[in-house]
Amino acid sequence: MEISSKENIHFFSNNTILPMDRSSFKSESSASKEKQSCCGGIKIFLGALSFVYFAKALSGSYLKSTITQIERRFDIPSSLVGVIDGSFEIGNLLIIILVSYFGAKLHRPRIIGAGCLIMSAGTFLIAMPQFFMGRYRYERFPSTINSTVSISPCLQDKSQTPFSALEKSHAKINAGCEKEAGSSMWIYVLLGNLLRGIGETPIQPLGITYIDDYAIEENAALYIGCVQTVAIIGPIFGFLLGSLCAKLYVDIGFVDLDSIMITHKDAQWVGAWWLGYLIAGAISVLAGIPFWFLPKHLPKPESRKDSSTSSEQSKFITEDNKEQHKSYQQVKIAEMAKGKSPEFFPSLLNFLPSLKNLLGNPVYILYLCASIIQFNSLIGMVTYKPKYIEQQYGQTSSKTNFVIGLINIPAVAFGIFSGGLIMKKFRINVLGAAKLSLGSSFFGYLLLLSLFAMGCENSEVAGLTVSYHGTKWTTDYEQALFSECNSGCLCSENDWDPICGENGVTYISACLAGCQASSGSGKNTVFFNCSCVGPLESPSRRSSAVVGSCQKGNECPKMFLYFLVVSVITSYTLSVGGTPGYILLLRCIKPHLKSFALGIYTLAIRVLAGIPAPVYFGVAIDTTCLKWGSKRCGGRGACRLYNSSALRYVYLGLTLVLGMVSIFFSVAVLWVLRKRSSPQDETLSANGERDTCGTKSRKDNFVNSDHLIQTTYWPEKETRL
């Protein structure tokens, strides 16, 4: 009987287990298929979003690479170029709140696609002035232009110049004045960049939150790191494209290139800046096409179906939040009864309470302040880095853009990707992410400090940085342009047509060098009997000079190499903290406010960093100018020569001071996190779950204090915002 009963028990138990195994197998099979479908959909979106990030980064970096070209082409100072650069952020400012707050309720992929079309239209508009303004005219003395008339550079008597030559010269200047007086074509560049900023607005807040909604939680950091890494590839191609276009003459296809008397090494050279914008606009159009065919929603990962919050945030849900969810459901049903779509809840009335709730998060506010100041530092540094390299180390625009695109930008890409990989591999919690972000900023700015010792001396320009006798001085620049050696010449102090004397000193013009004769034409012109070029001990000896500025000192190429090495290491170090900072931002806010929080974050960066930084950096850089150009109709044009030492201290000093201030706020973020966290929260739990913002786990801390996160139970998070 006992054996029989045991056999019966075993029989029934087997019969009972078999159906459970089949059910479990079916459940696992369906879950596997759903997981594959989810992963496939999110990866397609990831690829499309990465290409859009590439397109917008390419056009944005190409604008940075053409800063000096635009400055020379439109004859405007650096401060005005900074306003043009900041117009992109103004475009973001116009609609960022609406897009980030209401965009999550609509079809996010299609909104991104529409933004790409607007962005491409703005990029095309930037290039339009080239087709409507006259040909570029650079300053050249008549003797350097192909002509059968021989004119002495040092006009000791006006009668030496044929009347017909003077008449033609004045006629051309007057015609140019009439043309320039009726147009300020740089405004079209500003408006195009403004439009480009409007189109770029939905890409970041809607794209990143779409990934965070539908990606498996442990893969979210890696996916965001991948998107940002691909976005850095865009600037590589953007600067390389800028390098290529800088070698091509601005009016290529419109003029005979054999008649151009300057080379790309000349300070007055302007490359084909407009050509790259046509290419970037076409790429933006292609990038927006896939988003018109992507779905509004993707299947949620299995790990997120049972909870609308992440594993980090779900443990902080309180009873108060559940009551809020009940209220939400009741209002939602009432909205449906009235025939209104629940997609548009909460209404505009919820905007201010949401904003108040968001700004009441101390970690979010402190991190926002740190980011604003740091982006002021980085945006100003990146915007004027090409100009700094050109003026400090005497490099051409083409070589400068090539070096930045091929060496500097890959270091940034590798740094961002490394940050995401470190977060995933070591499963770093939010407190660890704050430490990693702080550490990368501290060591990055520490390396930046060493660049102060890697500068070049000022170029030796007679009357500006050295006297005509070869001694270094000058306090009164304008009066120093004239000396005894050129007192018999009729020269203008406003001209900028530099020549290089055989003594290694640059002279502003052949006239100011006291040159009496010339031979050859165009690029091959050689000036003779230059009274100011002769050595002091032998004033009777007359020396020669050639067209163009002299090269900087022998130590400058070596310093440029050191600068590149330190700059690459600094770029990598600063970029490592990018992805951890993003994760810190996403995990320290309510899940249903994620899109809104990213929108406010982006808005603050645009308004308080993106717009003012290029302007006040440009104003500060303008104060270091030694020689301003003159417009054809009068007035100050673009700067022709900078004080290298002053430029180094202003550019690097402003960057470093802002960076150090941002580090203090980052320390405050870490202090708040550690103060609000318990020892258990600082380590990973046994099942691999991470803590959020180091908030204490005890329930009463959430109910009775101003805690960091008040995670509301919100079905489907931002998709039901």
UniProtKB/TrEMBL annotation:
<keyword id="KW-0812">Transmembrane</keyword>
<feature type="transmembrane region" description="Helical">
    <location>
        <begin position="40"/>
        <end position="59"/>
    </location>
</feature>
<feature type="domain" description="Kazal-like">
    <location>
        <begin position="479"/>
        <end position="534"/>
    </location>
</feature>
<feature type="transmembrane region" description="Helical">
    <location>
        <begin position="598"/>
        <end position="621"/>
    </location>
</feature>
<keyword id="KW-0406">Ion transport</keyword>
<dbReference type="GO" id="GO:0006811">
    <property type="term" value="P:monoatomic ion transport"/>
</dbReference>
<keyword id="KW-1015">Disulfide bond</keyword>
<feature type="transmembrane region" description="Helical">
    <location>
        <begin position="434"/>
        <end position="454"/>
    </location>
</feature>
<feature type="transmembrane region" description="Helical">
    <location>
        <begin position="110"/>
        <end position="132"/>
    </location>
</feature>
<dbReference type="InterPro" id="IPR002350">
    <property type="entry name" value="Kazal_dom"/>
</dbReference>
<dbReference type="GO" id="GO:0043252">
    <property type="term" value="P:sodium-independent organic anion transport"/>
</dbReference>
<dbReference type="InterPro" id="IPR036259">
    <property type="entry name" value="MFS_trans_sf"/>
</dbReference>
<feature type="transmembrane region" description="Helical">
    <location>
        <begin position="220"/>
        <end position="250"/>
    </location>
</feature>
<dbReference type="Pfam" id="PF07648">
    <property type="entry name" value="Kazal_2"/>
</dbReference>
<keyword id="KW-0813">Transport</keyword>
<comment type="similarity">
    <text>Belongs to the organo anion transporter (TC 2.A.60) family.</text>
</comment>
<dbReference type="GO" id="GO:0016323">
    <property type="term" value="C:basolateral plasma membrane"/>
</dbReference>
<dbReference type="InterPro" id="IPR004156">
    <property type="entry name" value="OATP"/>
</dbReference>
<dbReference type="GO" id="GO:0015125">
    <property type="term" value="F:bile acid transmembrane transporter activity"/>
</dbReference>
<keyword id="KW-1133">Transmembrane helix</keyword>
<feature type="domain" description="Major facilitator superfamily (MFS) profile">
    <location>
        <begin position="45"/>
        <end position="677"/>
    </location>
</feature>
<keyword id="KW-0445">Lipid transport</keyword>
<dbReference type="InterPro" id="IPR020846">
    <property type="entry name" value="MFS_dom"/>
</dbReference>
<keyword id="KW-0472">Membrane</keyword>
<protein>
    <recommendedName>
        <fullName>Solute carrier organic anion transporter family member</fullName>
    </recommendedName>
</protein>
<keyword id="KW-1003">Cell membrane</keyword>
<feature type="region of interest" description="Disordered">
    <location>
        <begin position="300"/>
        <end position="323"/>
    </location>
</feature>
<feature type="transmembrane region" description="Helical">
    <location>
        <begin position="80"/>
        <end position="104"/>
    </location>
</feature>
<dbReference type="InterPro" id="IPR036058">
    <property type="entry name" value="Kazal_dom_sf"/>
</dbReference>
<feature type="transmembrane region" description="Helical">
    <location>
        <begin position="270"/>
        <end position="294"/>
    </location>
</feature>
<dbReference type="GO" id="GO:0015347">
    <property type="term" value="F:sodium-independent organic anion transmembrane transporter activity"/>
</dbReference>
<feature type="transmembrane region" description="Helical">
    <location>
        <begin position="650"/>
        <end position="673"/>
    </location>
</feature>
<feature type="transmembrane region" description="Helical">
    <location>
        <begin position="364"/>
        <end position="382"/>
    </location>
</feature>
<feature type="transmembrane region" description="Helical">
    <location>
        <begin position="402"/>
        <end position="422"/>
    </location>
</feature>
<keyword id="KW-0325">Glycoprotein</keyword>
<dbReference type="Pfam" id="PF03137">
    <property type="entry name" value="OATP"/>
</dbReference>
<feature type="transmembrane region" description="Helical">
    <location>
        <begin position="559"/>
        <end position="586"/>
    </location>
</feature>
